[in-house]
Amino acid sequence: MTAAPSIATAVAMLSCIVTAAIALNVTTLPFDEGFCHLFGDDNLVRSPDGRSARLILNRYSGSGFISNDLYDHGFFSASIKLPSDYTAGVVVAFYTSNGDIFEKTHDELDFEFLGNTRGREWRIQTNVYGNGSTSRGREERYLLPFDPTVEAHRYSILWTSDFIIFYIDDTPIREVVRSDAMGGDYPSKPMSVYATIWDGSTWATGNGKYKVNYKYAPFVSDFSDLVLRGCRVDPIQQPDSARRCAEANEDLLTADFAVMTPKKRAAMRRFRQRYMTYAFCYDTNRYPVTFPDCDVIPSEQSRFFEWGETKYPRERRRSRRQIRKPPRAGDPKREADV
């Protein structure tokens, strides 16, 4: 049984909820209505009002939760506040997957937050896997225009039958359009929604050079403003579920967060120009033959080495005493500070 949170913990979690802005037009739900405990025993702590959860990594275990249902496409979102101080080797993830059902042909869509040494910034990685295509990873990595440890920011995954969009706050940062060229690499089977924190010392920071240092534990990440909008399905009765979900998927395609306006596309282009640090489409060392679904933009490609890393890293050290309210993703005021 999960231990009751202390008064200090309760206050901190409620503060996290208050400061998280909801820019997208979505309806949030209580934790127990949509999710359940996955692993980590007492390292998952629900808030007093039941609408958020805290995930903890210590020397004994990480922690995580999973949606109660699988979804045939959907919009999945959470406001997340990341651990501060020395976080090398720490991985926080918010993602969809069906790996527990389709072990060798699973689909997956990821937000992975990769910790760093003291004074250096968190990095975000997005992944797209379909039909077990883990050997053909479609990773991209980014820095952030704000400090994700000061207050919560919203991270969202829109997965439809035609396209995928990753959002940070109300700014789209990546769009994947389904094409014949992708074939089975496009995620198409029902997936659950997960949130986890765990020890990724073998690869997360400096390719494993910097490990988790439990002297700085516990590492705490808060999840609030939880959203599960999609058609719940039974993985055994997929044909029936597909027919039943047709109307729900059509509703998903016409929602405001699914419409890529010129303003949204401009914001996405600015974000990628300023903060993308790795692109699989430009990693010719790893993939000598460019993926057929890659939309190679010559002006963008010129900013990356042949191993996919940017030639112009924007990361900088931050003073531990630097306290400043971070702007939202896509805020042009941040450009002069990076």
UniProtKB/TrEMBL annotation:
Post-translational modification: Contains at least one intrachain disulfide bond essential for its enzymatic activity.
Claim: Signal is one of the keywords in the record: yes
Keywords for the protein's UniProt record, in alphabetical order: Apoplast, Cell wall, Cell wall biogenesis/degradation, Disulfide bond, Glycosidase, Hydrolase, Secreted, Signal, Transferase
InterPro entries hit by this protein: Beta-glucanase-like, Beta-glucanase/XTH, ConA-like_dom_sf, XET_C, XTH
Natural source organism: Musa balbisiana (Banana)
Main location: secreted
GH16 domain segment(s): 22-223
GO cellular component: apoplast
UniProt name for this protein: Xyloglucan endotransglucosylase/hydrolase
Gene Ontology biological process terms in this record: cell wall biogenesis; cell wall organization; xyloglucan metabolic process
Family according to the record: Belongs to the glycosyl hydrolase 16 family.
Class of the enzyme per the UniProt entry, highest EC level: transferase
Superkingdom, natural source: Eukaryota
Enzyme Commission number, as recorded: 2.4.1.207
Annotated segments matching region Disordered: 312-338
Biased composition regions of type Basic residues, renumbered to the chain: 314-327
